[in-house]
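Two proteins were folded this term; both appear here.
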Amino acid sequence: MSVHASFVWGIADVLRGPYKPNQYGNVILPFTILRRLECVMEPHRKVMVQVVQEAADHGYGATWIRSQLRRRTRTEQSPSLSFWNTSAYTLEKALEDPDNLAANLIDYINGFSTEIDVFKNFGFEEQIKALDEYDRLALVTREFAEIDLHPDVVDNAAMGDLFENLIYKFAEASNEQAGDFYTPRDAIRLLVDLVFAEDTEALRSPGVSRTVYDPTAGTGGMLSVAEEHLLGMNPNAALNLYAQEVNKHSYAICKSDLLIKDQDVSNVRRNDTLAMDEFADRGFDFVLSNPPFGQDWKASEKQVRREHEAPNGRFTPGLPAIGDGAMLFLLHVASKMRPADENGRGGRAGIVLNGSPLFNGGAGSGPSEIRGHLLKKDLVEAIVALPTEMFYNTGIATYLWILDNTKQPERRGKVQLIDATGFATKMRKSLGNKRVEISEADRSTILHAYSAMETSDISKVFDNNDFAYWSVTVERPLRLNFACTPERIEEAAEHKQLSKIDGLIDSLGTFGTDLYRNREKFLSDLGLHLGTDGVRLTAAQRKALWQTLGERDEEADVCIDSKGNPEPDTSLRDTEIVPFGWNNHRKEDDAQDETIAAYFEAEVKPHVPDAWIDDSKTKVGYEIPFTRHFYQYVPPRPLSEIDADLDKAVAEILEMLKEIER
């Protein structure tokens, strides 16, 4: 935790008693934002007061104030001021009148320009009144008035860390999923580096302008790192940031952070991204996202299904199980990359996901169809496996997906897999489940493997169709014997439908116990017998009867349907997975018949000669078995070593027992 985070978190001690730990954030976070805004305004306060006064004298509106502030406060070292406050108070001045401190602070927060709606989202006015009632307001205000949060002291990246660290701590105190609000910076930096990697030269050119969008923005951490990365390459680059966030507190922090950076805060919007795309009319140069792991999409189900049924909706390609919306965010991110222009420049995206989008769902399922859509559109450029224990709320495997709709020529039709699971540096102090981080040196190694695009221990390159397969249903014929033995008749008597047919059970008892191995012969003879006893059966009852009286018998004749075709035995039904390009066949969808036929003759027919393929059930599927491609066999230790270790352990135990006896 940074010095500033420790200091701000320490202020929470003042709240103990009247406030519970899960309520600290409602006070600490808006106060932190207020002090940050105050520190940003402080060097420009004289100009700000002058501009506001001129506007009041001449009846000018907010547009005039904003343009004048930007013009008069712009410097080479920092962004211009794009917001203002009409109140005469600061935290320090408000403290000079302790009897009216609450009223002074309320006047102060209500004096901000309309872009600053952060305090309404926190219900800060009510918190000020409550603090005053609990006799804590002066103590908290004085603590914040003394901390310097000016960008020269705490830069934007550090401020983002501060906000997310505080949110993490407060969420942890509330037993919430803290990691939902806090994406580790080392993961973000690797993601940003990978997403920006193919645009490096263009980003360094004079006058370059790019848009970056985060549909699950949280407090804006990914956008801050993206801005830091781009401005580090080209200080004169124009970067326009766009964000959407559903949590009102995170949204408020993100909006205030972008306002301080002189970004257009109308591009920060609050809504559920799956239910409503607030930027439906545009695409972006870069898209970055870390959606919540394992979160269902029940709240957005109606809107999601509507877009799935639309011809060109975000979710038209497929729907995952309702218990996990990760692949919906993957589809959304893919849809937000800007289309290619006349110069061949399109969009790139990076998203953090758990392992399930790689392989969940069989052929024909929603997840498989989504993977197929992305691969057939040639949008998946690379997937990077991160070390476990990288994130705050989970220790499971996580992956970075890099998407591109205008790949470089050497990457077209290809997907690169990078195994970065071994690049983990132990942290001195864990944060939740986060116990390791990716160092700068390891990040450089990963980026080099990506740029080289060569096969190595940590990098492998595949054709898109290497992840495609046919799911083939193999049937075997139904073979049954039939007899009216007491045991089988008893089963018929207990059958829900057959037990209700008058005279059936008695008639079966007089049919005899001969064994039949031909269904047609058995049904013919039994039908005559039942008819003699006046028992008539419907087609459904007849089927239920032979199914009850039949037992599987490899020596019996094959059961034939009305068209003379063998009936399949569902208990022997099997599914074969036939990869595209099996045994050097073409890796194309139109090679289905020849590839499956060759596979069947070589892999199935020699073992089950009576089997056949039900072509009507053949489906195309897609999965990315990441772990399998990097699996390295480790032979077990020699038995002699194991025996030696056991002997040593036994000797130590015996020695300890002797000590006890002595």
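Next, the second protein.
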Amino acid sequence: MNGAESLVRSLLSSGIDTCFANPGTSEMHFVAALDRVPGVRCVLGLQENVVTGMADGYYRVLRRPAATLLHCGPGLSNGLANLHNARRAESGIVNIVGDHATFHRPFDSPLTADVPALAGTVSAFVCTPGSAERLGHDAARAAAAAKQHPGQIATLILPADVSWSEGGSEAARLEVAAPAAIDPHSIETARRMLTSSRRTLILVGNSVATLEGIELAYAIAARTKADVMGSSLVAASPRGRGVPKLPRVPYPVDVAVEALSAYEHVVLVNCPPPVGFFGYPGKPSLLSNPHAVLHTLSRSDQDGTLALRLLADAVGAERSAGRLPQDARSEIHLPTGEPTPEKLDMALAALLPENTIVVDEALTFSNGYTTMAAMGNPHDHLIITGGAIGGGIPVATGAAIASDGKRRVVNLQADGSAAYTLQALWTQAREKLPCTTILLNNRRYNILIGEYRNVGAVPGPTAMSMLDLGNPEIRWAELARSLGVEATRVTTMEECTRALSASFASDLPHLIELVI
């Protein structure tokens, strides 16, 4: 078999059966091998940042890596923004980046680039197989690296001649190293902090924000009178009736500093210390009380849930103390009138189907969706972790692929960031995915108005014009229809709730343009 076929077979042996792709000339032998080797679902994205965002969403739902197929250095560059988000989300992905044939690279043809350097900015593992004979084994190494707890990006650079040459062989799945061991001294230190008289916060990180992890944190908090929050980097967490609330560290620096100021001890569970997204004049980078003692219970490469189990035993916490009963659903009256964040929150809490996946890139049009979190049907809530906007629609698309169309996906999508990766709607239409995109059209980059204040700048007419998306106006519903997605433009909450109900009753993608 040739190298390309050995690559496909080795990915399947390692449990990777989905490939999000935007291929080019260098990848044609790999694409041809997909026809000869059954078992890989190949999903086409119209731009590489769509492809990488879909792989991120896929991992967050299944906790299993998919592959991406990208064309040379420029294709990888196009996908780097959502790979940056995926790295911050601790998503496992195997990138396959086609490259020139080894004999052609010295001629420095137009697409030649330093692919290893580009890949290294987001990847924990980078490898360029030197022959078809090595390709299968290196693919198995990449898959094992991507599965390493809590999830990593691995990039396999595929020279065209390695792909087309004979001599390949299928490699067996490699064993994935277990998470690093928990330090018993770390458990004991956390126990002493929590049982002291000091006010203590348990700050929960990404891979621990499961139902079990959150309930364990609350059980410990109930025993020790601590509080619980989630890191701003929590990429996916359960919400809805029966799930303890996990408030995140707020985005605005002043609000975050106020929220954390009372805590003298902070126990970090698989997350770094809380820091601001940006540095601002006269404001701190570290958001916790400057006099607080910060203690790392577990690092991201360790099993934080296991650490919480051990800590719960150490403080004598009853596991059941962190569980909430799933009470009968309260009636929520559907909102009317002019759209507001609170009214959209109420509408979603009333109408959201059970087991929905909510992908939130609403940015400024959000109050945390607290009603939906407390009173809505149980669902999973995903956010864009790395600050690179344009993740929402691709992540929602990948999440729908991961659930094989069996779960409704709702994307709360700001208009400014939607413009980056709108092409993902075409993939939703092509794959017939049950995605509902609520496009929040306020016709501006609203978040930057607040950022002007934060940095102490005074915006003039030119600066404000850079935030204006309304001249000319973007007709989002019309754009969605042109990409094959059914779309509705609404201006009131009555129209919005009708459109939501119709969309949730359908198995096909739908965009609701909510003018706000």
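Residues 103 and 184 are 54 Å apart (CA to CA). The two ends are 57 Å apart (CA to CA). These notes refer to the second protein only.
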